[in-house]
Specification:
single chain, 2 domains, 136 residues, two-stranded antiparallel ribbon, 7 helices, Arc Repressor Mutant, subunit A
């Protein structure tokens, strides 16, 4: 039996950057029904070569399909991953606004930064706290 490649053994961990690209693709497709390299670069404030490098990695992971000089599509796995990223973002934004009491602008900015680093256990606890009725 052949030895497994390191990529078969080590889980494919998403970096913050790749998660941001996936989330941006999802949002663009939702908003404008289209995501292209130029749109993604503009939305994230990065260069087109940076977008191409990220898209190559997302495609290698089976999360997107990218037509040469064309649109970017989420695969079923990419749709599931981006939905989870967006769910975490929305939960954290609401938690920071409603439970912690920070302004909507700060909640949005901070949620965007921390959504990529929290464990499932922490996110589950935040979800429980956010869903609990407020004590008077």
């Amino acid at each position: 039996m052949p030895a497994k490649a390191p990529s078969d053994i080590v889980p494919r961990i998403m970096t913050e950057s790749l998660e941001m690209y996936l989330e941006t693709i999802s949002l663009l497709r939702e908003k404008t029904k289209m995501a292209r390299v130029t749109d993604i670069a503009r939305e994230l404030g990065v260069s087109k070569p940076s977008v191409h490098a990220a898209l190559h990695e997302l495609e290698r992971r089976g999360l997107i399909e990218h037509e040469h000089y064309g649109e970017v599509f989420l695969s079923p796995e990419g749709k599931a991953a981006s939905a989870e990223i967006r769910r975490r973002h929305e939960l954290l934004t609401a938690f920071l606004r409603n439970t912690v009491g920070v302004s909507p602008e700060v909640a949005e900015r901070d949620a965007c930064r921390i959504e990529h680093y929290l464990s499932k256990e922490t996110m589950d606890k935040i979800g429980e706290i956010a869903a609990a009725p407020k004590k008077e």
